[in-house]
């Protein structure tokens, strides 16, 4: 079983809970008042509360949010439980930019790189997160890469694979699933859709294989989509959470 934690934010922007049409009820909502300050300070404040919720969860935490950087709070919370996990990162994008390489400055495009310790003074140190090594990270089906990301990944020890050929680490696993890993035509209203991805059922089968190992210590689902009432969204979240909650 799992404890479902909803973090209705995209970066430091609070979103309506209706953006996350989860089945059932009784979910823990993480909606702290964020301090004044720059976006980094506001995100650290938010992710500290996420880490608290994950570390205090009575069952395996399942975290649903509006972007990928919430995974940093999930990792910190898992580490507080005395676990040293690897991470499997499903995403159509690389999320391995730095402030120097990013042309947009979008922090969500740096999420995995931050988990590896980039800009430590801005995120991992104030959050109390122990950075992962590159060998603890597996990047799944990232197909929309900027040149700087491709250059970094060409020499990094991060494993890369398709959803059909995932190498499963022997460590405990934090499973991060950005729903945009699915072909953009199957998930309506995405902020950053990418064509040419795997179909929904292929992704769901891959999630099932990972969950079946019994080593998943947290599942983090990122839903970077615009507001809208689409039945496909509730069906997708029900399918992912249903596979996880069987364990």
Q: What would you note in describing this structure?
A:
By secondary structure, the protein is α/β, with parallel strands linked by helices. It has a single domain, classed as 3-Layer(aba) Sandwich (Arginase, Chain A), CATH 3.40.800. It contains 7 helices and 10 strands. The chain has helices at residues 39-56, 70-80, 111-115, 124-127, 147-155, 200-211, 231-245; strands spanning 2-7, 9-10, 13-14, 28-29, 60-65, 86-90, 137-140, 159-161, 173-178, 216-222. The strands form 2 sheets. It has an 8-stranded parallel β-sheet with strand order 4-1-5-10-9-6-7-8, with helices on both faces. The longest helix has 18 residues, at 39-56. The radius of gyration is 16 Å and the shape is globular.
Shape: globular
Q: Please describe the biggest sheet, giving its number of strands, its sense, and whether it closes into a barrel.
A: 8 strands, parallel
* Beta-strand content estimate: 15-25%
How much helical structure, as a percent, in the residues?
25-40%
CATH architecture: 3-Layer(aba) Sandwich
Radius of gyration: 16 Å
- Structural class determined from secondary elements: alpha/beta
The ordered string of helix (H) and strand (E) elements is EEEEHEHEHHEHEEHEH
CATH homologous superfamily grouping: Ureohydrolase domain
Number of strands: 10
Figure out the total of helices: 7
Please list the strands of the largest sheet in the order they lie side by side. 4-1-5-10-9-6-7-8
Structural domain tally: 1
């Amino acid at each position: 079983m799992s404890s479902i934690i909803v973090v209705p934010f995209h970066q430091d922007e609070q979103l309506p809970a209706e953006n996350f049409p989860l089945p059932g009820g009784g979910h823990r909502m993480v909606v702290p008042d964020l301090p004044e300050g720059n976006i980094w300070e506001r995100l650290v404040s938010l992710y500290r509360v996420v880490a608290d919720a994950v570390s205090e969860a009575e069952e395996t935490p399942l975290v649903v949010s509006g972007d990928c950087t919430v995974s940093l709070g999930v990792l910190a919370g898992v580490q507080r439980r005395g676990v040293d996990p690897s991470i499997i990162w499903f995403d159509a994008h690389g999320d391995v930019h730095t402030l120097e390489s990013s042309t947009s400055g979008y922090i969500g495009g740096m999420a995995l790189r931050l988990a590896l310790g980039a800009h430590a003074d801005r995120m991992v140190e104030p959050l109390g997160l122990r950075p992962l090594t590159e060998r603890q990270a597996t990047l799944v089906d990232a197909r929309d890469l900027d040149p700087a990301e491709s250059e970094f990944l060409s020499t990094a020890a991060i494993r890369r694979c398709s959803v059909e050929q995932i190498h499963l680490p022997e460590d405990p696993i934090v499973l991060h699933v950005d729903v945009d890993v699915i072909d953009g035509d199957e998930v309506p209203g995405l902020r950053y859709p990418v064509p040419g991805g795997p179909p929904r059922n292929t992704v769901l089968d891959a999630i099932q294989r990972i969950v079946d190992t019994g080593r998943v210590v947290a599942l983090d689902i990122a839903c970077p989509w615009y507001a809208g009432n689409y039945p496909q969204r509730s069906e997708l979240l029900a399918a992912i959470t249903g596979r996880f909650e069987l364990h």
